Amino acid sequence: MIPTSRDEPEQAGADPAVDIEPPGCSVLVVGCGNLLRGDDGVGPILVRHLWERGAPPGARLVDGGTAGMDVAFQMRGAERVVIIDAAATGSTPGTVFRVPGSELAELPPLDGLHSHSFRWDHAIALARWALGDACPTDITVFLIEVAGVELGAELSEPVTTAMEQVLEIVEREFLAPLRPKAADTAEVELTEDGHLRLGAELAAARFPSDAAVAALQDEALWLIPLRGPRSGGLLLKQRNPAGDRSVLVREVLGDKGEPGVRTAQWDAAQGALRIPLERKT
Fold it and tell me: Which residues, listed in sequence order, are joined to residue 91 by a DSSP beta bridge?
């Protein structure tokens, strides 16, 4: 018999309301622009570099492309927003403009706006109109002056240099505060099958891109973080849901380094993790 609604048991604690709100985040970084038109793609390319470096918990990275209307709704739930876009003001190519908050007070009107002419300032104006009080108030915009926007061109040298500068600013001011802090020393393990095991906290803090170079020097194994997999090197693989990592170092070690636990030391001057070959007793 098919039960009627009166016969169906009620589920304890069931909430009829459906939450369709997007997940919030501490920092939203959006790169706007057209990847097919040379320097105009600097925003999405910058975001892709950030992806390779590894996003910390609480950060959301978005390739906004040319879909400015989508960018507006991506802002919902973000505490801080960073937008990177290209500019064509006639200034020297590679000039970086950091738009102050006072200039975001007066944004262009949306009346008669075509989707193909949508810019970063239109996206913010639309977000304020559509999201109301839910629109973030902490918004920072970086504009990079273009040298050329020819179809199919690569990023020009001055814009590439400027992009690197903005990358470091975004990392230092917005993403670094979200990254887990690791102690200068930590226990690691060399396994029988030639892997180096790192705890989740150490891996997230020191190797956010999950890419590294390993080398033997001064009776120690040095593990040096890379900016991303495209730089080559070794990949750190996730071992368990807790986020612990392992990296295969057997070829680097050769016949050195017996399996066992070591106390590793972070060398800030070298930007590397030093693992002594002598096993901890």
Answer: none
The whole-angstrom distance between residue 26's C-alpha and the CA centroid of its chain comes to: 12
Distance CA 266, CA 259 (A): 20
d(CA 66, CA 192): 51
108 sits in which H/E element: none
Q: Which residue has better confidence, 71 or 189?
A: 189
Residues in the chain: 281
Burial class (CB in 10 A: 0-12, 13-18, 19+), 29: buried
Which of 24-28, 251-255, 263-267 is predicted most confidently?
263-267
- CA distance linking residue 85 with residue 44, whole number of Å: 8
Domain 25-178 CATH class label: alpha beta
- pTM of the shown model: 0.76
- Running DSSP on this structure, what letter comes out for residue 171? I
Any residues with CB less than 8 A from the CB of 153 and at least 6 apart, and which?
A: 37, 38, 39
What is the C-alpha separation between 257 and 190, in angstroms, rounded? 8
Tens digits of residue pLDDT in 88-141? 999 999 999 998 766 676 665 555 555 545 566 767 777 777 788 888 888 899
Q: Are 163 and 111 in contact (CB under 8 A)?
A: no
As given in the structure block, the two tokens for residue 73 are 């709704």
Domain definitions of the chain by residue range = 25-178, 185-276
CB 82 within 8 A of CB 140: yes
